Amino acid sequence: MKLNLGKVMNLVVALSVVVINNSCTFYYKTSDINKSLFDLVKAVNSNYKSIDNGFKKIDQEYNKLKSNDKNEPFLTAKNKMIALEKELSVIASLKKDINNEYAEFKNYSKGINKIASNSEEWGMVKQTKKNMKYLNNEISKNGEKLVKNSHEFNDYINENILPLVKIYKVSDYKERFTKTIDNLKKLRSENLKLLNDYRLIYNDLEKKHSKLNSEECMQLKTQLMEVSKKVKELENIEKAINDMYQLFIEKTKGQNEIYNTDPFWNILQQDQEVFKQHINSTKKVQENIKTDYRQFQQLANKLNAK
């Protein structure tokens, strides 16, 4: 058999053309890849925002208690809160990584409309997808863990903390203060008017009886001086309560409720005890004023009878 080298060379060339023509080069539109990655990043950022807002709400509600975290069950609750914060921090870090992966893709694909399977960017895209898929799975796994532990924390609060917590409205305390102050102002006005009336009575008696009954007149004057001192005592009590009220407003600014777990609660209880003492003192002083007036009236009647 005679070998025809020309035909052989033609066959080799033909086979080479077939191989070249059949070597598949794939293309991906950069815009399609970008949309896929962007949608993933958008979903991750949105989900993280929801989780972060949820945690902030839990943290805000718990911090309202302002409890002493050194004692149980508040110590355990605080430790659980710290653990949740660490878990959220892990998710935040993963979210940052996935955003960085996307930013890197945007950087190396900039100005490229299509990415060919035989290009350097092709391998970079495959690695980006792999990395982002891994990060997304890690976020999902850690997110589920955080949600689970958040429910457990909520259950712990409901079972161990809330039964110990008492909540009082700031508005109730303000109303008590304002009503008391209004009553004291009214009482002061009544006392001043009554004192003025009795002074007029004294002036009339003093004109008529100062010569023959000077001792009795002096007693009447002394009684009115004592009443005046007691009225001044009531004014001082009114001022003290008003000062307490102004301080209360300042300390509770921006608050609608007070929790018995708040250190301020102990201060408030002490203030309320002082408040009660002021009220009791007011009642006692007012009773003494009434007694002075009765004695004044009795002596005045005796003078008028002479």
Strand content: under 5%
How many structural domains are formed by the residues?
A: 2
Helical fraction: over 70%
* Low-confidence sequence ranges: 1-22
Shape from CA axes? rod-shaped
Please tell me the overall pLDDT: 89
Looking at how many chains there are and whether they match, the oligomeric state comes to single chain
Rg over CA atoms: 44 Å
Strands of the widest sheet, in order across it, are: 1-2
Number of DSSP helices?
A: 7
Number of strands: 4
Distance between the termini: 173 Å
> Could you state the order of secondary-structure elements as H and E?
HEHHEHEHHEH
Structural class: mainly alpha
| Largest pleated sheet | 2 strands, antiparallel
Task: Explain what you see.
By secondary structure, this protein is mainly α. 82% of the residues lie in helices and 4% in strands. It contains seven helices and four strands; from the N terminus they run H-E-H-H-E-H-E-H-H-E-H.
Would you spell out the secondary-structure blueprint of this structure?
Blueprint: H1 5-22, E1 27-29, H2 30-63, H3 74-108, E2 114-116, H4 120-161, E3 167-169, H5 170-209, H6 214-251, E4 257-259, H7 263-305
Helix pairs in contact: 2-3, 2-4, 3-4, 5-6, 5-7, 6-7
